[in-house]
Please model this.
Amino acid sequence: MSTTLQAIRGMNDILPADAELWEQFEETIRDWLRAYGYRPIRMPLVEPTPLFARAIGEVTDIVEKEMYSFEDSLNGEKLTLRPEGTASCVRAVLQHNMLYDGPKRLWYMGPMFRHERPQKGRYRQFHQVGVEALGFTGPDIDAEQIAMCARLWDDLGLEGIRLEINSLGQSEERARHRADLIAYLEQHQDQLDAEAKRRLHSNPLRILDTKNPAMQAMVEAAPKLMDFLGDESLGHFNGVQQTLKDLAIPYRINPRLVRGLDYYNLTVFEWVSDELGAQGTVCAGGRYDGLVAQLGGKPAPACGFAMGIERLLALWQDQGYKHETLAPDAYFVHQGAAAGRFAFRAAEALRSAGFAIHLHCGGGSFKSQMKKADASGAPVALIVGDDEAAENAVTVKELRAEAEQQRIGFDQLADHLGDIIFSMEDDDGSL
Ligand code: HAM
Model:
């Protein structure tokens, strides 16, 4: 006997009950993005490997150890399943010369792939909604993107997501800070753990992120990037903060917020929930003014963020959101060859009139079909036997209300069903 095949670890099926929740989330997302003037873009899941190495940075966890990379068996080209969307989005923008007539606001949604150790909230295939604004210089767009997120949490009814921001300045400012930081860390060599020693010259900023309690005091006292920022960088950061204050969006400046991708400068931000355990960052992003030029385009500033859909949905459910399973308007029950053919035609006619009809397939007794009708959640069963078929009529039985069942002619069926559903919505108070 062959064993059943399983999905790859860290790559999950999303079963119907959850997939319906995803669809409701996606509807909210589309309305929300439209309200801010963002337009959709869809990029391939597979890109040339050098795109990510150049954009995200050679010395990052993602590029060093988390990418699903392989060679095209036909031409040997090195390919990678996208670990994030920003690099692909910028590549697409450049390839199609999309900035020729001014700045663009773009968004995408879909799976990303990272070979991380799976745990709650961390998967190997996960999904992001990504938002990218290209061609905007001022701090207004950074602040608007942060405000957008605050509005989305509100639209979804999510609570307790806190905002952390920081400024990474410009590359020259980071270079001066980096030199000072390395000198400082070298003076404290004896306190560095193995991981920190490995990163000392390749990525010293990440050492500031250490979770090692023995290094905390030393790291606290290390030179701070903020002290190396010039007037322009500070002015940009103050501009972002001013708008956040004007809009009464609470935030905390976290000088240790450095992000795991190399393309950022100036503003960076993360939205974090304490209710999700270790993987609490539900949304993260910032400015990446150098990336367009780095990928071969005419220099253009940019700013964006992405949120982890799995994490947001877990929070949404934990905080009590119950999604609606959409029941059909009616379940069609039928028995006999003539009745079956008539039911098929009637069901199609009702769908043309705008109703959602679940037509029973696969035969079975009236009794078992009626059980299925009940389980479907439909408010109405439409029943056709030989008698009804001969009369071109359907017996209409309300399943959620006390009402006489009635035999209704084919021509009046859509109106009659509409009346029942309309009166139910009235009772609900939902219309
Ligand atoms: P990121 O911080 O790598 O940024 O990912 C953004 C979000 O994706 C995270 O905050 C998290 O919610 C979710 N996420 C990341 N990895 C996983 C995983 N293994 N499992 C589940 N969720 C995950 C970016 O990807 C940037 N492209 C964001 C950006 C867009 N910056 C500018 N524009």
In short: Residues 84-86, 114, 116, 122-123, 126, 128, 130, 132, 260-261, 281-285, 288, 304-308, 310-311 surround histidyl-adenosine monophosphate (CB under 6 Å). Residues 16-35 form the longest helix (20 residues). The two ends are 56 Å apart (CA to CA).
